[in-house]
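User: Hi! I'm working on a homework problem where we have to compare a predicted structure to a textbook description. Could you give me the structure for the chain below?
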Amino acid sequence: MIPARSILPAFGLGLGLAALGLLLDGETHPGGPGRVPPDDFRSGRFVEPKPVPGGRVVIHVPTRLDHLNTVLQSSAQARRILEEIHARLVERDWETWELEPSLAHEIEVDDIVVLAGGWGEGTENILIGDVTRRGDEVIIVTDSSEERIPASAAQRFEPGAAITFHLRDDVLWHDGHPFDASDVIFSIETYLDPTVRSDHARYRFERLHHFEAVDEHTVRVFFEKSFFLALETFEDDFTILPSHVFDLSDFDNRDFDPDATPERRGSYINAHRANSRWIGLGPYKVVEMTDQHVDAVRFDDYFDAEQAGFVDAIRWRIVSDDGAARQALLAGEFDFFGRLRSRDFLGEFCSQEDFVERFEKGVYYTPQMNYVAWNMRRPLFEDVRVRTALAHAFDWDRFIATIGNGMGKRVTAQWYCFSPNYDEDVEPIPFDLERAEALLL
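Assistant: Happy to help. Predicted structure tokens:
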């Protein structure tokens, strides 16, 4: 029997090959971002030193950045820089890959009961809480109450579709302005604004039915339907903008204009000088951005002292040619370079004296995957047997062994393979040409 489901023929986990040479207490310290795989990359050539705060780190960036506002563009490089200069409502723990509160000190996820009559304009026709159904009754439990309604009074249930973010009250933007719920609400509105260049990301927020500021430090959002990635919507792909900088209707904006048209408000965001002169919430603040580099220094008023900047300054240096960048690495012009090819990692490049004396090479996995997707709107791919046959017809193990020099991990879902959501018991579709041929006959 052919299961009636879509088949993605294969996944390849994101793999980072990096050279790292951080000066810590006079020693070169191996390390790297992301979860280190079980076969830790440390060579044992260096003794673990005692880290000493201070100094500057220079990190390679392969592409020139127009700006840093990922509301307006999908840029992996900008997102990586924002990891140091910005903060988010929730962030993923690099070891456990669990989502944890950041700008929100507490997060509540509740079920929704949509009452008979359907969604209203706001929240007047819904109930939220821990919802269970017993016989002809629906029970909605909150921290302070328990409500019972006839099951006939409920149109439908949406588990986990309401999220309440309780924001920290000690967070400052890099210009000293307090962060609060108005910034979060404005940012959601910006993603949804058709006059803003956010087409690449708008779809994620179109699932929201309603969102509101409950008070100055509380934001609540309601998804129209249950969505398994609801909380992830507000992870690293949700860039919070300072309302007092980008919102013309914010009284604290230096260009305050409450009568601005929607088109004027959108063009103001699209062309704002702060898109490159970034004002963020992270442990480092940008002090200069040019075509050659982005410079940031430690932000002394960062809200989380334990996670504050360890070094004094970071420079992201832009070198677009990988060959030139590798030579700059050997010359000691970079402290971190993350674009080593597997043949360089395993071969002559990382074995030469200039590299060995200064750097440690390392492997780290990223929560990304590469895959081949079939367009099911085309008649050829409508039949699941065709898609399954194509999956059987490609030898991913050989691909990883040859093209990737064995440095890769095959996975069976879009969930990160080190996360608690990943099911290790799901076997990948095997390479089997006979089975592929049989399915296509």
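For your comparison, note the following. Residues 28 and 247 are 45 Å apart (CA to CA). Confidence is low (pLDDT under 50) at residues 1-15, 21-41. Good luck with the assignment!
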